[in-house]
Automatic annotation (TrEMBL):
Signal peptide: none annotated. This is ABC transporter. Pfam families: ABC_tran (PF00005). GO terms for molecular function: ATP binding; ATP hydrolysis activity; transmembrane transporter activity. PROSITE patterns: ABC_TRANSPORTER_1 (PS00211), ABC_TRANSPORTER_2 (PS50893). Gene3D superfamilies: P-loop containing nucleotide triphosphate hydrolases (3.40.50.300). Belongs to the ABC transporter superfamily. Macrolide exporter (TC 3.A.1.122) family. It comes from Aurantiacibacter marinus. Residues 17-244 form the ABC transporter domain. PANTHER family: ABC TRANSPORTER ATP-BINDING PROTEIN MG467-RELATED, LIPOPROTEIN-RELEASING SYSTEM ATP-BINDING PROTEIN LOLD.
Length: 246
């Protein structure tokens, strides 16, 4: 593993995100929390990034802003040539719906719908979706598509959530602790599904985790500390999730 501290992207690659001097301050009554304190970064299309850092260091705030769920207090953020900071709320929502898939620690599936129906909720409103069965095939759950969430393990439910996220063919998947509720072998299968989306669909992948072992599957690792990216580590090679241990 090679360590590097530069924030610039390798030459000649297509840009996914580019952020400059991003600050985020939450104001609650008399209290101000400086969640992001001047973050600069570039992320290239198709990159796999892992975000590490102590609790409260700003990782989720960063992910929510990059995904258009929230806005920075100041600074600029681009997705390719689109200036996200200049967008109206309506346009930012449209950007998020079209380009971004989210995966959270808890799967948020609808219990009364089958796996396929859960995915179809998204494909029914997307502009160029995959067939739900194809999305479930991508995560290795084609055979289980008529099962309800309660009939699936935690890892399988999370893979349905991955299928739901990739079914609208987003350019980017943002994952906040996707394996946080899973044991290691089940978590690795979820990471394999995410890595396959990156490899087969060229989806840019950002994964927040508290598990430093997961960093091995990344092209680069952003280390957050006190609202800043304190260090960027570049992996000489990516390790397949199946080869990882923790
Ligand atoms: N909506 C909010 N209102 C006020 N403060 C907030 C809000 N969201 C986050 N914060 C604060 O901003 C700081 C950064 O939080 P954030 O959730 O981004 O950290 P994190 O690195 O993702 O932490 P964790 O690993 O525990 O999820 C924390 O001090 C947190 O308490």
């Amino acid at each position: 593993m090679q360590a590097a501290t530069q924030t610039s992207q390798p030459d000649g690659d297509e840009r996914a995100f580019s952020g400059r001097e991003l600050f985020k301050t939450y104001i609650t009554g008399e209290t101000q929390v400086h969640a992001l304190r001047g973050v600069d970064f570039d992320i290239r299309k198709g990159e796999v990034l892992v975000l590490l850092g102590p609790s409260g260091s700003g990782k989720s705030t960063f992910l929510n802003i990059v995904g258009g769920l929230d806005r920075s207090t100041s600074g600029t953020l681009y997705y390719a040539a689109e200036n996200l900071t200049a967008k109206s709320d309506r346009d930012l929502t449209r950007f998020r719906r079209q380009r971004i898939g989210f995966i959270f620690q808890f799967y948020n599936l609808i219990p009364s719908l089958t796996a396929e129906e859960n995915v179809r909720l998204v494909t029914d409103i997307a502009s160029n979706p995959m067939d739900p069965a194809e999305a479930l095939h991508h995560v290795g759950l084609a055979e289980r598509r008529h099962h309800f969430p309660a009939q699936l393990s935690g890892g399988e439910q999370q893979r349905v959530a991955v299928a739901r996220a990739i079914a609208k063919r987003p350019g980017v998947l943002l994952c906040d602790e996707p394996t946080g509720a899973l044991d290691s072998s089940t978590g690795i299968r979820v990471l394999e599904a995410l890595e396959a989306a990156n490899r087969e669909l060229d989806t840019t992948l950002l994964i927040i985790t508290h598990n430093a072992g997961i960093a091995a599957m990344a092209d680069r690792v952003f280390h957050f500390l006190d609202g800043q990216i304190a260090r960027i580590e570049t992996n000489a090679e990516r390790i397949a999730p199946a080869e990882m241990t923790w």
